[in-house]
Amino acid sequence: MFGFITVNRKQLSPAELEAYRAGYCGVCHALRQRYGSKARLLLSFDMCFVALLLSALYEEEETVQERHRCPFHPLKTLPRARNAFMDYGADMSVLLRYYHCLDQWRDEGKQQARLQAERLGRQLPRLEALYPRQYAAAADYVRQLSALEESGVEDLDQAANLTGALMAEILAYREDEWAPCLRRIGFFLGKFIYAMDAYADLERDRKRGCYNPLLHRAEESGFEEFCREYLTDLLAQASLAYERLPIVDAAAAGLLRNVLYSGAWSGYEQLQARREKRRGNKTRP
User: Fold this and answer.
1) How many angstroms separate the CA atoms of 80 and 85, rounded?
2) Which of 138, 156, 254, 280 has its CA 20 to 30 A from that of 102?
3) What is the pTM of this model?
4) How many of the other CB atoms lie within 10 Å of CB of 240?
5) How far is CA 38 from CA 81, 110, 131, in A?
């Protein structure tokens, strides 16, 4: 799960691409500084979006813009933003990865996931002290999701609402006038992430006998139309909430709209292309 809230690079202006790289490198740098070099592997597009949105909304917070050389791209300097929201994105990346590993261990028995959860678990007391509301939401999410999966509920909305509630609390960085709007954005993006994850893992979950609320629908006529309409509505609701925020920086606003109106569809379109290719291969003589 997670990794679906990304950008459409082809549609970014140079200024928007610069802003995206600065945020992406900013969260990556914060992960390394706060948790060590290996923690950069926890970087996700979703938490990068959280950091970028909060940075654009709370302009009064100090942001350091700098150039740096990345060991993965050593031939040129890249932009990097440093502020409290990049640190927050890094911290939420660790928190979510911990519970994701627990879920993998419980559902699939992956020992590697168990070991990573044990390592990340050492950070939990600090994260709970810094973000008690977000920490409680993540722990509650795992408990409720486990109970729902064990019950075998086939209602996609009921399952997706849990991820929506979690993302709502993560995007609401602080309790202020913007918190209701941020929660609404987070809620619908969280539902989108869950639905996309279920859609992407459909074949794998069928083969492994894993829980997936889309399995009972997959063989019905109109399944693809249902999925696209469901995902479209979620992004539309998130976008409507976003448009209520006072984002004044043109590059930041363009970047965030790129994610909501185009980039978030990238994963779906890639899945569609792969499935069309597989269907084409099966029909060849």
Assistant:
1) 13
2) 156
3) 0.92
4) 14
5) 20, 20, 23
Q: What's the number of CA atoms in the CB half-sphere (13 Å) around residue 188?
A: 20
- Measured over the CA atoms of residue 240, residue 238, residue 218 and residue 145, the dihedral's sign is negative
Q: Report the residue count for the chain.
A: 285
Torsion, Cα of 65, 5, 161, 229 (10° steps): 140
Cα 105 from chain centroid (whole Å): 20
Beta strands in the chain (DSSP E): 64-70, 73-82
Question: Which two structure tokens, joined as six digits, stand for 133?
Answer: 């509301």
Beta strands in 83-119 (DSSP E): none
- pLDDT tens, position by position, 219-260: 888 999 999 999 999 999 999 999 999 998 999 999 999 999
Task: Report which of 173, 168, 166, 159 is spatially closest to residue 55, judged by C-alpha positions.
Answer: 173
Domain spans in the chain, listed from the N-terminal domain onward: 157-248
